[in-house]
Fold each of these.
Amino acid sequence: MPKYKIADVVFEAKLLYGYTEKLCKSYEYSGDQPCAFTAVMTEEDIQAENNDATQEFPAAYLESLALFRKLLNYALKYSDGIVFHSSAIMVDGNAYLFTAPSGTGKSTHARLWREMLGDKAVMINDDKPIVRWVDGAFYVYGTPWNGKHRLDTNCRAKIKAICKISQAKENTIRRASTAEMLLTVLNQTIRPTEADVMDKLLKMIEKLLTTVDLYCLGCNISREAAELSYKTMSGEEL
Amino acid sequence: MKIKDGFILREVAGNFIVVAVGNAVKDFNGVITLNEVGAFLWKKLEGGATEEDLVDALLSEYEVEKDVAEADVKKFVDKLVGAGLVK
């Protein structure tokens, strides 16, 4: 049974299809840390992910989503971890999370940062990174669930800022309030159904919103937009 | 009137929200934001207050004219009924 280490959680997975094993390849673990849990995939788990009435997805793909859900269930209950649907990028050891509804341009903005900063910018994850509270700080971790451009790195970085993106003709950036960011974060994570786990999630989100810097960015697709967001959030010159 | 089981009010970083848990998630999968007055009325409804109770509660807690309080309560209750959050 393959063992994985994702977001510093070691687990083993009994998979039914080859796709997920391939997807998680770079997160395979051969060390001697004990497994936190075993994910035994069933057809029932897999079909539970098939909740889009307009499309049929292959079971092998759905299995990868089911595994992600099992990992998140464990992470939230036992290790202060949540998924935060975003493009997470690391520069000089600091992580920046761009969030927005699908199709707004968070991946595009992260790409503009990479074009501007070159090797200094490392893509942690372009879709579903995991955010964890570890030893008094928030870290973002790469995961294999990395979006359509398949961008992720098996690493972690301390989160400096979360930035909500909207499309605009002119580029502007300002600090965001916790009220503005709360719904965004709640809508970009997977919410549990158990009341006690929901309270864990909400406590963690509260801590996240009051710990890291929050920004709203209105932007077009240009280098100027990337310069504005990078300089403002990092406090660095190019 | 009473809030249905499974809808919980929580304060997160000074902001009031309502989310569904348990079986209620099947009926409602979103998040509702409430201001301070909305949260105040919600708590009264958790205890099974009538519309009149809500108006009285508003009048004793806030400096507000009776007709304004009545209109506000009606608007609030209509929203909750429309969203299927009360029984």
Note: Residues 4 and 28 of chain A are 4 Å apart (CA to CA).
Amino acid sequence: MPRVTTQNFFPASVLAVQNAQLQEALRRAGSGFDGARREAIEEVGQGSWDKWREEARQIKVHTLEHLDYYLELLAENVERAGGHVHFAKDAAQANAIVAELATSRRVKVAVKSKSMVSEELNLNEVLEENGVDVYETDLGEYIIQLAGETPSHLVAPALHKTKEEVAQLLHQKLGVPLTDDIEAMARVARDVLRDKFFQADLGISGANFLVAETGTLVIITNEGNGRLCTSAPPIHIGITGMEKVIPSLQDLAVFLRLLPRSATGQPLTSYVSMVSGPRRDGDEDGPEEFHLVLVDNGRSRLLADPDLRESLNCIRCGACLNICPVYQKVGGHAYGWVYPGPIGAVISPTLVGLKQAKDLPFASSLCGACREVCPVKINIPRMLLHQRHLLSESPDPAERSVTLSESLLARLFTIVMSKPTLLAAARKLVRLLARPWARNGTVRRAPLPPASRWTHQRDLPALPTRSFRDLWKQDLASSDRVTDGRDSDSGVSPTGSSEDPSPNRSEDG
Amino acid sequence: MVEHLETPREEFLASVRQALGRSAASPPVPPYPRLEESLADLETLERDLLARLETGRDARLEALAQTAARRGWNVKRAPDPEEALGYLDSVVTQLGVKRAVRSAEAVFQQLAVDSILQRLGIETTIIARDETGSDENRSGAALRQEMIDADIGITGADYAVTETGSVVVLPRAGLSRLVSLAPPVHLALVRPQDVVDTLDDVFLLRRLDYYRNGGDMGSYLNFITGPSRTADIEQTLVVGVHGPKEVHMIILG
């Protein structure tokens, strides 16, 4: 398994916010992808867009409900096309299968097209241990491989690097001159990797979709490296999560409309490549062997939980990262594993263990933007709340997220809120206690938890000296217009009580 | 082999079934409509599709030209073969092409591409084992090297898609996967009868081929939509990474 640091989200996010270089890279990335996504949707019209989203969601929900059936159909049709299918229940199995395929065929050099699942499995390390030189060929992946880092974004893995950092890296690792010309940097990658494609004994790709009806692996790319990885070497291994299957070839159309637009705002990527088995007799070229490795690695746990199953609808477009106020501030690495952002916060806790990732469900303001942009309408905030619930109610103290002070406070709150007299007394008490700590309308540093945990990183707005209830009782209720709060319609009088300049309006203690 | 390292299929599927709360294998109820379609059903849909493509052909070609141009193709509409060849002439001349590779599809029999290239003194290799009539060695490494060294790759198109501005190629005998990929420039020749409206059209036709060929639709299919691109560094668009930097589409109508 790759290094999992999901348990460190909060400290890692504090460091991320203090990391000037990362903040500059995130600032430059800005809302580029999200802006392009909006424009692309505008072009097709919100009506069509919503129709596509619903269609895609229905397809995914149906397929997952019958995943066993579609996996079997897929496997039969891959084999009918001359390919081999391997099932792996976890990372160790998946890596062992690929390593054995590579070593038994004396593979020395492997080229890889971008695959998040291979990052999840840490496949490169295992291949290297088996004497295989592995080259990532997607530009972003190549950059982070050179840097010895992990991807920080589902679509743009090197989003956390500025061009200056990339130039420095290429200079150090490859000895090329420093430049600030991004085109020149891309050319370096082309020149270095071109030979590798044709030297390689093995091409490895992920899959965006798997078509059960025809046994077809589909990859969606822009650079052309995916085409080279699946065309030039004599063996092609596709490795992906078992949830990528869709029933019919014709189901693919709607996903091709949704995925590129959601990811980069493109109506379609430069290339969509569809692999159905190895080369046929008579073909001019193409791999002689095709293997498909289907990985569970925790996905059946998501499948088994009705509250989390829809997270497997995800098509890895990254739209929820691009809109998320938390991701935009802390970047991808703080999330501690391959899947960052809102969708990562949902799936990582189940895939790596709730205990190891108990901060992640809280890495969200629950603003709901991720749900709005999701092309397959995944209700991410609902699942984050579900996981918060699991964490707060967990019988295992090591897993439980709620501190003693919070849980006592919550109990106290329940009692106070159920008795108006207690509530009135509590209001007075809290005002009295808070007064010495308030300066200019804010409490900058509270002395006791849980308020002190809040003020550790944020200011707490101070309470006004008079509560709404006091104002109501003393000023508003005494006027002729309004006599009783329960007198429903008179609350907003046509004579316009808003013109009444309340003397208390600006008073905030 | 690797069987001993895998989870046996039945065991894997059983664990998926267990996660779904089911005990026995069963097809979806109700059945999935698209997978219930018979060949006859698909042929009815095909007739409707072909009837639709019979109408409004010029508007369709114009729509393709416009969408493709927005996706980064250099587009030339050439109803007349002379115009098409003239455009090809100007492209290779401007680029200073010395070596060209082309595939061997039907379109090259109706358009005298070779004679133009020959007249310009461009060394041209047809990437097809049948045409070179040579042995396996020639067809493997040497042809591959020709494609790597070429300044331009010229192919036909199995379909062109108006919705997306894409050219679809189905590598097979006579069409290497690399002609449209390895050289820095790709030029695609699109016949009017191969232009369809939508992605759905392409997939319907591919499914028909699949069922007509007893469950085989060939090993590979590529949608090509403009030049090779990346935005992996600071989301800045760069054209021409591992694939062609420049792409041309000649619509023969």
Note: The mean pLDDT of chain A is 90.
